[in-house]
Amino acid sequence: MSGALPKLIDVERFAAKRERIEGVFTVTALDRLMQMAATPDGEVSFALAFFRDDQGRSRVTGAIQGSVMLTCQRCLQPVRHELAGSIELMALADESALSDLPGDVEPLLTEGQPVRLADLVEDEALLALPIVALHPQCLLPSHDKSGNEDGNPFAVLKRKE
Ligand SMILES: [Zn+2]
User: Fold this and answer.
1) Is the pTM of this model over 0.70?
2) Quick check: 33 and 49 in contact, CB under 8 A?
3) In angstroms, what is the span from residue 134 Cα to ligand 1's centroid?
4) How much helix, strand and coil, in percent to the nearest 5, is found in the chain?
5) Where along the chain do its domains lie?
6) Contacts of 156 (CB under 8 A, 6+ apart)
């Protein structure tokens, strides 16, 4: 599929036609992710393939990748978080079919309605967020380290990656 991305996806129809779509959302286009973000920078690219499995169930497989700026919980400065996740979904009209779900597949509750593509991608991006965002090497010294008592204590702040 080329051209503009569909806003809404009829998962059953897409699966029947074995549609494949890929694209990019900026973080600013994803409201819930934007609420978690420290700055508007970043984007989430995605690739999705729709298909029917051997039992005729509508499935979505794919991946997301990208980055979002979060707030480091130690120094409260922005920290880039690389997003990556794989997508394995099965469309369910309602929760009554939840017990049929294969172990490695998440439910996509459609209630028989089209789903927003942005929601589908955003749900996966939110799942790929860390519980606590921290710089891998945070500039704020931790309390248990012996500090450089003789140096300028602010020098470390200027050594910005
Ligand atoms: Zn930090």
Assistant:
1) yes
2) no
3) 6
4) 20, 35, 45
5) 8-136
6) 139, 141
